[in-house]
Structure to design on (575 residues):
């Protein structure tokens, strides 16, 4: 790991274009008004380093950093590393990279494992106060004794051990005297509580496993519920945002803090982001990676931040998307098309336009001089005058998109067809005169004539053509690989499975199409990985790190047509 990555990061945080009000902001505003925390706002983002971050985490990150930033507060990045068996340094590194990429800088960088000594001391205190005990029941027995939502639990026969015996046993648990799973430390609360989380929850388990930071120092590890609130408290976190599934854990979060008499951090729950056609669970995403169903955590089809970054999504698009979906207390599902809409909207402003032909069809302009090349002026970005223009070579033999020619045109087809004139973007008007076919009767070459008076695409006599198509000059074009992605899941809800089936049975087996013989403008020969372009009329594409000099590889970020805008249009909204 580079040292710079382990240092606390400071700096300005990125903000979305707009910040709609929400109930969490209202809570913070009230707390500021009542001076609850002396005007302080301290948040944290607490990922468990057991996988790569996904777009759902982006929502939490934008809230944690965004709200603190808005009120001049601070945000810590804290790795919640209490599960030594599932956690790895690779994940820690990727999480830091992803948070920075999203545009955020943490104030403190912490690990729950930094607090293992303090948490242990506090556990001893709870034992001494008669608030915790060592239980010898097995995990299975503990489950049985816990009861159900309708039935109260039963006290463990070990619940009334003396303080001395509990202290002795817990210290020996720490010293490594007992095998995994043989004993646990539990909080002594109320086995009849209507809230199952309050029925003497487990605080510590025995696990002889090496930890990515503490090595073999510990063979007992704190549970999430025992570690999280106290970590918040140690960092003097004022507003601890987490997702709704922790709502029922809040009484326990508060109980530990009250029993220990430590800084009263406040937990606030919000709705998890769910996206249609998308799985947002690190466990399931890990399965996709492990089973080789995708090329890795950063496969551009993955909803991970590293995946969508490689695909070409921008941090600005993600931040604006998160700001627009807001937060609430009920979980719903957001259309994937809405996320794509924000990606298009952002790329439309910044992506340079270029011409690329994905499925090349050869066009020969018979009356164009054999050895001539002209440099045509092409606009780089009509949305951004400062982006300027470039020269694109034009010559006698070109490639156009296969789909832009039909020998027998269907109704309302205005592109190239025998006898019809169309405009070649930034080039000339051409008319199809004849075609060449192969043995199978397929058109393999189209012959045209051009009108020299229409250079740049204008007609001196004012005649109109209905279609403008893109092209590249055959002699100058660069071969490129283009990867077209479809949703990993065709079903809106990937978890909607038949009995006995798994979500992975819903995988779209055609989610990746590789076009290996695309043709692009010569300027793209050595395009740098990560650069985003609009291929005119086709969509937004981003240069993949697999590119080699002279053989670029492009990922389709998103196609041009905006399904979300159309949906909105139908609803009468404007977009
Ligand atoms: P997963 O279920 O994907 O494994 P997790 O909740 O276990 O995610 P953590 O590393 O514990 O992942 O999450 C860190 C923070 O991100 C937590 O505060 C969690 O509530 C939040 N978070 C995780 N998933 C989402 C989501 N889909 N939408 C919003 N916030 C999320
Ligand atoms: Mg988790």
């Amino acid at each position: 790991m580079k040292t710079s990555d382990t240092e606390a990061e400071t700096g300005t945080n990125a903000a979305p274009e707009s910040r709609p009000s929400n109930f969490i902001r209202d809570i913070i505003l009230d707390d500021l008004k009542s001076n609850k925390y002396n005007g302080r706002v301290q948040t944290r983002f607490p990922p468990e380093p057991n996988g790569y971050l996904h777009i759902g985490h982006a929502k939490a990150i934008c809230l944690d950093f965004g709200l603190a930033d808005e009120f001049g507060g601070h945000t810590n990045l804290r790795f919640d590393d209490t599960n030594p068996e599932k956690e790895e340094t690779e994940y820690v590194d990727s999480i830091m990279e992803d948070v920075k990429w999203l545009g955020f800088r943490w104030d403190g960088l912490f690990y729950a494992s930094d607090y293992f000594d303090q948490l242990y001391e506090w556990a001893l205190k709870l034992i001494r106060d008669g608030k915790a005990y060592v239980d010898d029941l097995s995990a299975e027995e503990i489950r049985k004794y816990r009861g159900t939502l309708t039935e109260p639990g039963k006290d463990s026969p070990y619940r009334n051990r003396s303080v001395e015996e509990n202290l002795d046993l817990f210290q020996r648990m720490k010293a490594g005297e007992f095998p995994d799973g043989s004993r646990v430390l539990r909080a002594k609360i109320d086995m009849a509580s209507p809230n199952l989380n309050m029925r003497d929850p487990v605080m510590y388990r025995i696990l002889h496993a090496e930890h990515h930071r503490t090595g073999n120092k510990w063979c007992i590890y704190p549970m999430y519920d025992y570690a999280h609130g106290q970590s918040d408290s140690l960092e003097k976190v004022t507003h601890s945002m987490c997702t709704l599934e922790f709502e029922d854990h809040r009484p326990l979060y508060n109980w530990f803090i009250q029993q220990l008499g430590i800084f009263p951090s406040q937990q606030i729950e919000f709705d998890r982001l769910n996206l249609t056609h998308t799985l947002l669970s690190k466990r399931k995403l890990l399965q996709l990676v492990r089973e080789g169903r995708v090329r890795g955590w950063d496969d551009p089809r993955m909803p991970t931040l590293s995946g969508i970054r490689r695909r070409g999504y921008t941090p600005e698009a993600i931040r604006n998307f998160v700001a627009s979906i807001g937060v609430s207390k009920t979980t719903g599902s957001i259309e994937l098309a809405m996320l794509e809409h924000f990606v298009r909207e952002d790329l439309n402003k910044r992506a340079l336009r270029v011409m690329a032909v994905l499925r090349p069809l050869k066009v020969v302009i018979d009356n164009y001089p054999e050895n001539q090349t002209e440099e045509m002026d092409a606009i780089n970005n009509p949305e951004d005058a400062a982006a300027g223009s470039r020269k694109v070579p034009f010559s006698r033999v070109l490639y156009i998109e296969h789909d832009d020619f039909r020998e027998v045109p269907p109704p309302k087809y205005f592109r190239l067809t025998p006898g019809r004139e169309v405009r070649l973007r930034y080039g000339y008007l051409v008319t199809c005169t004849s075609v060449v076919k192969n043995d199978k009767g397929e058109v393999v070459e189209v012959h045209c004539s051009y009108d020299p008076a229409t250079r740049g695409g204008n007609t001196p006599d004012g005649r109109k053509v209905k279609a403008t198509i893109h092209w590249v000059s055959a002699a100058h074009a660069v071969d490129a690989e283009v990867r077209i992605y479809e949703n990993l899941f065709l079903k809106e809800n990937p978890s909607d499975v038949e009995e006995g089936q798994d979500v992975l049975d819903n995988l779209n087996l055609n989610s990746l199409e590789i076009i290996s013989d695309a043709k692009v403008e010569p300027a793209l020969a050595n395009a740098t990985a990560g650069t985003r372009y609009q291929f005119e009329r086709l969509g937004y594409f981003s240069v993949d790190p697999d590119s080699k000099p002279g053989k670029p590889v492009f990922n389709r970020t998103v196609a041009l047509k905006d399904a979300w805008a159309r949906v909105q249009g139908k609803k009468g909204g404007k977009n």
Remarks:
- The two ends are 44 Å apart (CA to CA).
- Residues 46-48, 56-57, 59-60, 242-243, 272-273, 280-283 surround adenosine-5'-triphosphate (ligand 1) (CB under 6 Å).
- The first helix runs from residue 3 to 6.
- The CA atoms of residues 351 and 533 lie 5 Å apart.
